[in-house]
Design brief:
TIM Barrel; 8-stranded parallel β-barrel; oxidoreductase activity, acting on paired donors, with incorporation or reduction of molecular oxygen; Luciferase-like monooxygenase; Bact_Lucif_Oxidored
């Protein structure tokens, strides 16, 4: 499979690194967006998370508006908006507003998880009794507010009614794959933190896809963590930030995105190392040659139409350079 036929895109959670302010974290991400636009990446998506010490992407549509003003052509989107946290009418208004500001550049990726802990989910006024089971109905309501038909009703999204903002479904299991196939929507799979169900979800999606007017063919993005450097040693060193991040998640501890370390064995136990490495087994860290080989293998195994990369790199300059290395590897 030719790499030139497979677009590369970026997922960003607006990480707040140790020693950086929130304002600096947002500025660092805006600079990254400009750099990956220049490098030829296809999309720049931002993920909604709440009450996490090292992530500044809670106000996702606000961040996207800021990045849109700093860029000119790269597609912008949510990876994703956690729909059960919001009224579908408000989501339609926000993303149609973004589309009015940056015409033809906006994607709306949707997830059904809270993007936070249960206590914070309650503070978001999320109905926890449904456990996400109402997601299909909320999706239908959102699509209605985007429809031309809704423009003639008393309650309508202004802007929003008649919008052509593409809706994507995001998932880490087969649930969203089933719904995306049924609704005729493109799908993005979160292999960067949940690789177990990747192949089953993609296979079900393609085998059961029902074409829609906007998307006559199935389309799959696979998202992984990726990190590029000039040497394997440097890549492995920088990747210890990602390892520490997932170690902390497993322990239920909070910290700013940490600096890399020389020896992970001084930090984790053998069982923790096994868990983290299994969860991150689709991560790609290395030189241009390693990245090219690993991404090619991923595409061949998964049948991905597009690869999206997320990065947990403490140094903002190294993060920018990493994406340049990845782009160079994938020409």
């Amino acid at each position: 499979m030719q790499s030139k036929n497979i677009p590369l895109s970026v997922l960003d959670l607006i990480p707040i690194g140790e020693g950086f302010s929130i304002s600096e974290a947002i500025a660092n991400s805006a600079r990254l967006a400009q750099a990956v636009e220049a490098a030829g990446f296809n999309r720049y998506w931002v993920a909604e998370h709440h009450n996490l010490k090292d992530i500044a992407s809670a106000a996702t549509s606000v961040i996207l508006s800021h990045i849109g003003a700093k860029t000119s052509k790269i597609r912008l989107g949510s990876g994703g908006i956690m729909l059960p946290n919001h009224a579908p009418l408000v989501v339609a208004e926000q993303f149609a507003t973004l589309d009015a500001l940056y015409p033809g550049r906006i994607d709306l990726g949707l997830g059904r998880a809270p993007g936070t802990d249960m206590e914070t989910a309650r503070a978001l006024r999320r109905d926890l009794k449904t456990k996400g089971t109402d997601f299909p109905e909320m999706l239908e309501e959102l699509q209605y507010f985007f429809s031309a038909e809704s423009a003639n009703k008393r309650i309508k999204a202004v802007p929003g009614a008649g919008s052509s903002v593409p809706v994507w479904l995001l998932g880490s299991s087969t649930f969203s794959a089933q719904l995306a196939a049924k609704k005729g929507l493109p799908m993005a799979f979160a292999a960067h933190f949940a690789p177990d169900a990747m192949q089953a979800a993609i296979n079900h999606y393609r085998e059961n896809y029902q074409p829609s007017q906007q998307f006559p063919e199935p389309y799959v993005i696979v998202c992984i963590n990726a990190l590029g450097a000039d040497t394997q040693e440097q890549a492995d060193y920088l990747a210890t930030t990602e390892l520490q991040k997932f170690l902390s998640l497993g322990r239920g501890t909070e910290q700013y995105l940490p600096k890399p370390v020389d020896d992970m064995n001084a930090i984790w136990s053998p069982s923790e190392a096994m868990r983290v490495k299994s969860q991150l087994r689709e991560s790609v860290w290395g030189t241009r040659e390693v990245i090219r080989d690993r991404l090619t293998d991923l595409v061949n195994r998964s049948g991905a139409d597009e690869v999206m990369v997320n990065s947990w790199i403490h140094d903002p300059e190294a993060r920018i350079y990493s994406h340049q290395v990845i782009a160079d590897a994938w020409v």
